[in-house]
Amino acid sequence: MSEKKRITLDDVARLAGVSAITVSRALRRPEMVSEAVRKRIDSAVAELGYVPNPAARHLATGRSNVIGVLIPSVTNNVFSEVLKGIYAASETSPYDVQLANTRYCANTEESALRLFASQKPAGMVVSGFDQTEAGRKLLETLDCPVVQIMETGEDPVDVCVGLSHFHAAEAATRHLLAQGYRRPGFLGARMDPRTRRRFAGFRAEAQAAGVFAEARVVTSTEASSVTKGAEMLRQLMAQAPEVDAIFCNNDDLALGALFEAQRLGLSVPERLGICGFNDLEVMAVANPSLTSVRTRRFEMGRSAIEIILARLDGGWQGPRVVDLGHEVIARQSTARQR
Amino acid sequence: MSEKKRITLDDVARLAGVSAITVSRALRRPEMVSEAVRKRIDSAVAELGYVPNPAARHLATGRSNVIGVLIPSVTNNVFSEVLKGIYAASETSPYDVQLANTRYCANTEESALRLFASQKPAGMVVSGFDQTEAGRKLLETLDCPVVQIMETGEDPVDVCVGLSHFHAAEAATRHLLAQGYRRPGFLGARMDPRTRRRFAGFRAEAQAAGVFAEARVVTSTEASSVTKGAEMLRQLMAQAPEVDAIFCNNDDLALGALFEAQRLGLSVPERLGICGFNDLEVMAVANPSLTSVRTRRFEMGRSAIEIILARLDGGWQGPRVVDLGHEVIARQSTARQR
DNA sequence: TTGTACGCGTTATCAT
DNA sequence: ATGATAACGCGTACAA
Questions:
Q1: If you ran DSSP here, which 8-state letter would residue A286 be given?
Q2: How far apart are CA B25 and CA B38, in angstroms?
Q3: In what side-by-side order are the strands of the sheet with B321-323?
Q4: For residue A157, how far is the Cα from the chain centroid?
Q5: B157 by DSSP, 3-state: which?
Q6: For B40 and C1, how far is CA from C1' in angstroms?
Q7: Which of A92, A181, A321, B313 registers the highest number of CB atoms within 10 A of its CB?
Q8: What is d(CA A278, CA A79) in angstroms, rounded to the nearest whole number?
Q9: What are the pLDDT digits (tens) for A177-223?
Q10: Mean pLDDT to the nearest integer, A241-262
Q11: pLDDT for A38-62, tens place per residue?
Q12: Which residue pairs from A140-145 have beta carbons closer than 8 angstroms and sit at least 24 positions apart in sequence?
């Protein structure tokens, strides 16, 4: 009743009365095999429950069915949405996704990249543009589709899909100014490259309006969290009590800042406006609801895989730079009476 | 400058002046090779930048270096902590983690299992005890370490590490009663097996105290979310306005319920006590801070891998059932004046 | 301690 | 349209 032995092409071939290579062809390029033979093979496959051995295929072709995915963090809410998109798009494909955690470190990323390279991946998904020099070169010589996600850039290795964090931050800041806030501050954790670009966008817009002040900027290299948001707001109020609105690096910080503002007795949005980044689900439900910048994270993951599949299939006719854009979602936390 | 060709054992062997098999041994069982030879081999490996080909190894041994992980959801905060533990423990090992999403569906899980089985994984991590019958059999015949995570159970396939959701829910309910709440309700989303066990624990404890009422139970088969928590509280207040405390299926619901309670003008904890489950980071920072049941999710992931590694290495001396326990973290949301 | 011969399951290449 | 043969890179079994 229990079958121990692995079922191979040969087994199928024997049952179908053909040779192994014919079975192999019938499976990969059905059109190369006569209809009659194909039918016999198909039923033999079904009867035996044959499943191809990816290791053997890899060895024979020198190509694996692995799509490597390099992301800075497995836990971060932002990336879990991206991952969801990646898995959604890859589940029905014959490719396996393999994750590696770069921990926001270009060197860690480089060694993960090296490991992937040795497996001759079918495709690669990497986050952003801040690889080491060697890492970038590795990607270029990889000879497989490479999609950079999370942000857009001028010169992708192959294709990139994301948004301009600089412009998104500009838009958020513009929103704060349009609501009448004149002393905006910035809360930023982690301060990875994309966070820095968001800060740059904030600063550019605030400076253009003549309302930028270094004293109203609080940053930390530690990971962002709700707790961190509360702490940072406390610090900001201590060092620059005149601040009347904050643009937060991301939604965790914004939520923590909201809680802390309530504890400090600062009314939101009257005394303090709050704007987050990413528009996690919680933002719309918070009380007051929190303004944020919507980014299309699920789509980033999904299109990254779809682009790779299209590439492998011969044709990706789209552009090298796919900008998924951003959208400021104005809510109560910045709805100040003017 | 650019080397195209794959570096194999033979290349290393030639450079070190030995045969390929000796290099193979030097890499896997250094003690089987003389010191002098080992040194020559090590430097040849370094010089050439040799990386073993896992596909070839798999083909030769009939065993892959993949540890398969089956989880119900990639996005759920609860599992992302577990994943973090899994990656933390596996990163330094020679094994690759491969994730499959079961979407809370035993049949999806079964086919993922079937796929993994065909790869002869080095180990498997699965969530809970609710496999299909065929799935369970598959796991038993897999001939590799199998760790069931997220909960404890009487008869694990191999080893399990988690907690008793029933007892944890009992403890949470006991806490509500000890705080003086007498009309407790329950909010439950998804209603997967573990959620149901939590509900059972709530009901058992409430019934023992004579304070259980079906009308104060609101459930949904949809995924849990902050939004859902707000909705469900609204529904609960409509159908059972006498409710004075709620035990929520998980923290998302609890947070959403808190926001909605504020909008409805229900003071927390005086008019309504709120207790969540899992103790996500946000619970401690919320305003008021939210009572929850701490579960050791990171440790679940980490020990699952550690147990597998120990097994593969010859010895796991621990018990078949590892109970990581739970802890009720009492905070403001249930700190009613008595 | 080290080496030789062979096989793992598949595909590429070259034939028929 | 189908088949024979060799090769992919490594590990097992056995021999030296």
A1: S
A2: 9
A3: B96-101, B66-71, B123-127, B146-149, B159-162, B321-323
A4: 17
A5: coil
A6: 15
A7: A181
A8: 11
A9: 999 999 999 999 999 999 999 999 999 999 999 999 999 999 999 99
A10: 98
A11: 999 999 999 999 999 999 999 999 9
A12: A141/B2, A142/A117, A144/A120, A145/A307, A145/A308, A145/A311, A145/A312, A145/A316
- Please report the pLDDT score of residue B3 as a whole number: 44
A96-101 vs B96-101, strand pairing mode: unpaired
Tokens 């909008």, located at residue: B263
| C-beta atoms surrounding A267 within 10 Å | 10
User: CA B228 to CA A302: how far, in whole Å?
Assistant: 25
Give the residue from chain B lying closest to A297, CA to CA: B75
Based on DSSP, count helices (H) and strands (E) in chain A, helices before strands: 13, 12
Which protein residue's Cα is closest to nucleotide D5 at C1'?
A21
Cα–Cα nearest to B149, from B105, B229, B85: B85
The amino acid at A10: D
Cα–Cα dist B173/B181, whole Å: 10
Residue B256 main-chain phi, psi, to 5 deg? -60, -40
What's the angle, vertex CA B224, arms to CA B218 and CA B225, rounded to 5? Answer: 115
Q: Which two tokens stand for residue A125?
A: 């998904």
Smallest Cβ–Cβ distance between B83 and the set A59, A74, A255 belongs to A74
**CA torsion angle B256 B259 B262 B266 (round to 10):** 10
Q: Which residue has the higher pLDDT, A318 or A211?
A: A211
Interface mutation vs chain A, best among B50, B104, B285, most A CBs within 10 Å: B285
For residue B160, the SS3 value is: strand
Q: How many angstroms from the chain centroid is the CA of residue A82?
A: 4
Residue A321 amino acid letter: V
Distances (CA, A) of B205 to A10, A265, B174, B199, B219: 60, 39, 7, 10, 18
Query: With bands split at pLDDT 50, 70 and 90, how would you rate the model's confidence at B338?
Result: low
Phi, psi of A258 (to 5 degrees): -60, -50
Extract the tokens encoding B178. 């000890």
Size of chain A in residues: 338
User: Would residue A265 be called left, alpha or beta, if left means φ above 0 and alpha means ψ between -120 and 50 degrees?
Assistant: left
Nearest CA in chain B to A63: B55
CA pair distance B33, B13, nearest whole angstrom: 13
The tokens for B85 are: 């533990």
- On strand D, nucleotides with any atom < 7 Å from a protein CB are 1-5, 7-13
Assigned token pair, A215: 């004293």
Q: How far is the C-alpha of B126 from the C-alpha of B148, rounded, in Å?
A: 5
Average pLDDT over chain B, rounded to whole? 94
| Both structure tokens of B15 | 């450079």
Q: Answer for A57: CB within 7 Å of strand C.
A: yes
Nucleotides of C under 7 A from a protein CB: 1-5, 7-13
Q: What span, in angstroms and rounded, lies between the C-alpha atoms of A119 and A11?
A: 28
Question: Measured CA to C1', what is the nucleotide nearest A35?
Answer: D1
Residue pLDDT, tens place only, B258-290: 999 999 999 999 999 999 999 999 999 999 999
Residue B113 identity:
L
Neighbours of A176 (CB within 10 A): 29
Name the region of A60 (left: φ>0; alpha: ψ -120 to 50; beta: rest): alpha
**What is the average per-residue pLDDT within A116-145?**
94
Q: How far A321 CA lies from chain B's nearest CA (Å)?
A: 27
Structural domains of chain A ordered from first start:
9-52 (1.10.260), 63-163+297-324 (3.40.50.2300), 165-294 (3.40.50.2300)
B22: left (phi over 0), alpha (psi -120 to 50) or beta: alpha
For B38-90, what is each residue's pLDDT tens digit? 999 999 999 999 999 999 999 999 999 999 999 998 888 899 899 999 999 99
